[in-house]
């Protein structure tokens, strides 16, 4: 059917058809059509929306990404017909049914993901199929290579190129903001790409964005790394392993991180930047992605094996994940804490120890420190101020203000202090619940939103002492966070009253919102 274009400024790879035209070519909303530019002869497939009133019969609304792809102008003539269903849907169905994907099938899926051929529900089906029917090691390798080969790669003239990655899952894990400048200050190159939050309330890219822009092309990442030795950027903007961010967008609302997907996501980013020395942080703890040491060891072996298959030296660190790292959760609060350590603060201990341990592993692996000396050398670099100076260079090269101080970075203006309901020890500090509260407060999109924990697990508190403060950039978000807190009860103080269920005529009282 011939239709006349009307350009519509909507960021979605689709077209808008009048319902009568849609009936005529036998498609419904959500189906695909093939749209052919009659001048260039080029065809693309696009998703269909239908309307009975917004456009007239004979007209096709063309959304912006589709306009760019097919290169049409306003009032041009295009040929439209029902499109074939992508064969990759059969491969996804195979995985949903517990089958094993071949290399060709995996590549076909990832090419469709990157070309935006799959709808969000089809993409979700793929992610969930791998969540329920885990990928084996061959499938993970195919996926990793496909993610790398469908994007750009960095090629540095000399080695080593080092990198680190955390599988996440523990709140407050701001260690990259310390490790990257320490390692770069030792003279190593570390082109660090990170994701935004996946299961948490602030991924490293969300944090770094408080200090400087994080969206760069692959070529810019390479140039900046060559200039100052390091960057901390958002992988989703780089076209390095571009499928990764599409997957993370699907995983984020479910707070899931499918194991095979996670292995491929992490290692594809390392492989694509040309890293040959890699340290992986695997936080282990009850409310994290890896609940037991045994599972942590198994995952570590998988990372190491995948590294061997790709020609990278990988070492994994199983780290303490029972409790948050440092005292803060949420972009601005976390950056303030990390920057204060770079400026010379000698606490929080958990943040400093974890960062120095992993930086030390990288220094030892790359020959910058003798075996067993990495932690000490990393500590010297931090204490000497060289890591802080390097962080200033990284912030500057990415276009931020290198003179920013920790004290300048303020949390959200709305806050609420949750106090101990009685005397005792903090015996429970639930990571997942804290993340849910921080997200309800607006993190990571609202950079000032988050939580400051005053009393971590094991701390002795007296009735009325602050346990944590919730911050938000908007009042209604603070209320939402407090409601979430009342529902989830993230902290238990030994001996405290967990709940009161009042009879019809009595109001109840808790420790939130009093
Ligand atoms: O949201 P959750 O699942 O905790 O983890 C995601 C975070 O963990 C990794 O950190 P890094 O890049 O090693 O600093 C990711 O890149 C991301 O920032
Ligand atoms: O980058 C990351 C980190 C954890 N999990 C992922 O899937 N990707």
UniProtKB/TrEMBL annotation:
GO CC annotations on file: cytosol
Pfam families, sorted: Glycos_trans_3N, Glycos_transf_3, PYNP_C
InterPro entries linked to this entry: AMP_phosphorylase, Glycosyl_Trfase_fam3, Glycosyl_Trfase_fam3_N_dom, Glycosyl_Trfase_fam3_N_dom_sf, Nuc_phospho_transferase, PYNP-like_C_sf, PYNP_C, Pyrmidine_PPase_CS
Domain Pyrimidine nucleoside phosphorylase C-terminal: 425-492
Keyword RNA-binding: no
The EC number(s) this enzyme carries: 2.4.2.57
Family to which this protein belongs: Belongs to the thymidine/pyrimidine-nucleoside phosphorylase family. Type 2 subfamily.
Name of protein: AMP phosphorylase
């Amino acid at each position: 059917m011939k239709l006349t274009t009307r350009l519509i400024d909507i960021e979605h790879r689709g077209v808008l058809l009048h319902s009568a035209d849609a009936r005529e070519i036998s498609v419904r909303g959500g189906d695909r059509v093939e749209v052919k530019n009659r001048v260039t002869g080029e065809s693309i497939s696009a998703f269909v929306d239908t309307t009975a009133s917004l456009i007239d019969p004979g007209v096709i609304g063309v959304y912006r990404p589709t306009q760019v792809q097919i290169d049409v102008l306003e009032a041009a003539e295009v040929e439209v017909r029902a499109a074939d269903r992508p064969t990759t849907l059969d491969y996804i169905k195979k995985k949903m049914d517990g089958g094993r994907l071949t290399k060709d099938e995996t590549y076909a899926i990832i090419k469709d993901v990157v070309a935006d051929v799959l709808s969000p529900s089809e993409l979700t089906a793929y992610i969930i199929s791998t969540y329920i029917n885990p990928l084996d090691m061959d499938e993970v390798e195919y996926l990793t290579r496909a993610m790398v080969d469908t994007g750009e790669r960095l090629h540095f003239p000399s080695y080593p190129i080092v990198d680190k990655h955390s599988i996440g899952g523990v709140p407050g894990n701001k260690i990259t903001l310390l490790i990257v400048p320490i390692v770069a200050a030792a003279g190593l190159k570390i082109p660090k790409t990170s994701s935004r939050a996946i299961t948490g309330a602030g991924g490293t890219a969300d944090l770094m964005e408080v200090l400087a822009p994080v969206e760069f092309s692959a070529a810019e990442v390479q140039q900046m790394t060559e200039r100052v030795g390091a960057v901390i950027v958002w992988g989703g903007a780089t076209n390095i392993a571009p499928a990764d961010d599409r997957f993370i967008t699907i995983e984020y609302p479910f707070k899931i991180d499918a194991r095979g997907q996670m292995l491929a996501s992490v290692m594809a980013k390392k492989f694509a930047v040309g890293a040959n020395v890699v340290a992986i942080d695997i936080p282990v703890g009850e409310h994290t992605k890896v609940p037991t040491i045994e599972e942590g060891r198994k995952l570590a072996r998988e990372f190491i094996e995948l590294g061997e298959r790709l020609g990278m030296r990988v070492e994994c660190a199983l780290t303490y994940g029972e409790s948050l790292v440092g005292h803060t959760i949420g972009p601005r609060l976390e950056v303030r804490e990390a920057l204060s350590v770079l400026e010379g603060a000698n606490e929080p201990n958990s943040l400093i120890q974890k960062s120095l341990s992993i930086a030390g592993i990288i220094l030892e692996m790359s020959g910058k420190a003798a075996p067993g000396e990495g932690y000490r050398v990393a500590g010297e670099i931090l204490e000497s101020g060289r890591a802080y100076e390097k962080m200033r260079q990284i912030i500057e090269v990415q276009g931020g203000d290198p003179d920013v101080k920790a004290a300048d970075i303020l949390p959200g203006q709305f806050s609420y202090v949750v106090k101990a309901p009685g005397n005792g020890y903090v015996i429970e500090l639930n990571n997942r619940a804290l993340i849910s509260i921080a997200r309800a407060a607006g993190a990571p999109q609202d950079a000032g939103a988050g939580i400051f924990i005053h009393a971590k697990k094991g701390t002795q508190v007296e009735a009325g002492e602050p346990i944590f403060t919730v911050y938000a950039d908007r009042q209604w978000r603070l209320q939402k966070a407090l409601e979430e807190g009342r529902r989830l009860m993230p902290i238990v103080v030994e001996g405290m009253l967990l709940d009161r269920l009042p009879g019809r005529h009595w109001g109840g009282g808790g420790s939130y919102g009093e």
